[in-house]
Amino acid sequence: MIEKTELFTRSIGTETDVVSKEMYTFVDKGEDSVTLRPEGTAGVVRAFVEHGVAQTDPKTRWWYLGPMFRRERPQKGRYRQFWQLGAEAFGQGSARVDAEMLAMLRDLFEACALPGVAFHVASIGDAKCRPAYKAKLQEFLRGRADRLCEDCARRIETNPLRVLDCKKEGCRAATQDAPRLMAHLCDECRAHFEELRRSLDLLKVAYEVDDRIVRGLDYYVRTTFELLHTGEGLGSQNAVGGGGRYDGLVQDLGGPPVPGVGFALGMERLVLALEARGAAVKAGPDAFLAPMGAAAVERAMVLARELRTAGLRVDMDYDGKKLGKTLERADKAGARAAVILGEDELARGEAKVKTLATGEETFVPLADLATALQR
Ligand SMILES: [Zn+2]
Ligand SMILES: [Zn+2]
Question: How far, in Å, is the centroid of ligand 2 from the Cα of 223?
Fold first, then answer.
């Protein structure tokens, strides 16, 4: 979660918003400048280089899930600590690998029953074709500096590609007819992008070519993509994920020339999107034990432990008095079932299992409880 600051300035780039404004950076014991990671790829590449993976496993796939940190104005769908799920594939430069990642993402959204995600793809060129385009874009932007917002006017000299990414109405209008990178790709980048398109068609992954995509990180080359949620629930923060190719990054960070491609998904935004379409995202306990009476509480304590060992999520009430109140708590906790342990039930070696969604009640022998409560 904590890396040396230098890792991010070298990989993400100092002229990006992430590095210039959004990182939590501090000095550790007066020696190293360290930073709470604002994204996952740089750290994965750092580990890849540090452990010499290119020598032992030249073609590998990695994944991560964890918190990232950015100093931003918190709002719905944007948090200073947020979770990302990501994957990276090292050692293969083919656009077919990029297509495979996008197909995997499409399958993931389908498995989540979240069909309303648009895949925007583009190529942002490489070190061969981007510099000439950048110069051309700068020339165009200098002629319109007075129509751009303050940030964009400054970006003309520092990071002109980002101007195309500005969401402000004035900037969008001023750059409507700006030269586009997609029209200035070198032959190799163009062939790479055509292969991506062919592969996506082969795998039947729907996508749109979006020549305004500019990822906010400097390390991307060629394939870049954004995953935009088109349904309700996210408002303006509708990007649920994105990624792309970073073929020079391993070398930039001290490793051999190994290509790489990856993506990251924002978990909080995914959850908001799922909630908006009514999916039950909150995972309550599988069972809430409701013992009645002191003896039943003791029996329930042992039972709770057995059920947890069997892999079930279990909560319980320790008062053992008011059944109505306990059932209310079970309901509020989002429990799937309440397990009622009264004197009569215990005398028979049973529990009354109430499915809270339906109100259906059945008597289950205590020995069979774990099996009966499995989904
Ligand atoms: Zn702007
Ligand atoms: Zn190129």
Answer: 11
